[in-house]
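4.2 Preliminary Data

To establish feasibility before requesting continued support, the project team ran the inverse folding procedure on a target of 278 residues. The structure was first converted into the token representation described in Section 3, and no sequence information of any kind was made available to the design step. The complete token record follows.
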């Protein structure tokens, strides 16, 4: 006879919805997200501009700005924990809470995931709603289909901290490149010394003159996205902001796996038998 672990009954009071506001203010907010914002008892958000604050106030005036939780010189993990504690406290006090996040709430954002896990374990309703993230904007703005050439992506510091194998026939995206190598979790600005280390690391796979793209999505509908092409070697001298993504195009075409094509029975005249896909 087996016994199942007890599961906490779902509480009727207090809930959390972590939702994405999209990247471009207003134009990428879904109908569902707007409805949930309007219905919330309290909305936690990160005030990265006064435009965002004004926009959200039109939907729901019950706002709590999490931006002050960031303190100069304080590790970001401490700031994230303080945000997490504030949100959980509001839910356990019986409020229906929305945590409104830039872009997609679950991308490059540990606290919402953790809040949902903890609240579910306590028996509260907690859910994440998808949002339009910077990756979706990047594919649209730069005209990249990640399914066509293939696409690898890493947070830039994680790319340095851990061993990875790069497929140079695919795109390589490095997010938060400005703070690549920041093991202290305190830096908010680019460090040219660390960027130089990143460039040296990338030169295992790419030549110094390989053309790379610095990409930034547009925060407002009236702004243009940034797409600046530089060589890999000049990356340490480039302007890198908190939202800059390094896009490294393929170095060479894909190589056909002829042994696999034989195993799959691909005919000799099939386009796959050519040197690369049409």
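Position-by-position output of the design step:
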């Amino acid at each position: 006879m087996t016994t199942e672990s007890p599961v906490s009954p779902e509480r009727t009071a207090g809930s959390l919805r972590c939702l994405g506001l999209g990247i471009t203010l207003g134009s990428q907010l879904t109908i569902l997200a707007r409805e949930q914002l309007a219905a919330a008892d309290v909305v936690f958000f990160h005030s990265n501009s006064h435009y965002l604050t004004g926009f959200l106030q039109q939907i729901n005036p019950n706002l709590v700005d999490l931006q002050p939780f960031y303190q100069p010189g304080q590790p970001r993990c401490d700031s994230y924990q303080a945000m997490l504690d504030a949100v959980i406290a509001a839910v356990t006090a019986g409020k229906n809470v929305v945590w409104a996040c830039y872009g997609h709430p679950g991308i490059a954002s540990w606290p919402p995931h953790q809040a949902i896990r903890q609240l579910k374990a306590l028996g509260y309703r907690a859910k994440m709603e998808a949002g339009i993230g910077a990756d979706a904007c990047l594919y649209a703005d730069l005209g990249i289909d990640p399914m066509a050439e293939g696409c690898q992506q890493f947070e830039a510091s994680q790319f340095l901290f851990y061993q990875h194998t790069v497929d140079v026939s695919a795109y390589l995206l490095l997010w938060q490149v400005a703070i690549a190598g920041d093991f202290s979790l305190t830096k908010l600005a680019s460090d040219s010394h660390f960027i130089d280390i990143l460039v040296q690391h990338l030169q295992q796979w790419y030549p110094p003159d390989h053309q790379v793209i610095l990409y930034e999505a547009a925060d407002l509908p009236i702004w243009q996205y940034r797409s600046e092409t530089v060589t890999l070697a000049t990356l340490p001298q480039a302007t890198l902001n908190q939202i800059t993504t390094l896009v490294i195009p393929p170095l060479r075409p894909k190589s056909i796996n002829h042994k696999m094509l034989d195993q799959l029975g691909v005919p000799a005249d099939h386009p796959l038998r050519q040197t690369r896909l049409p």
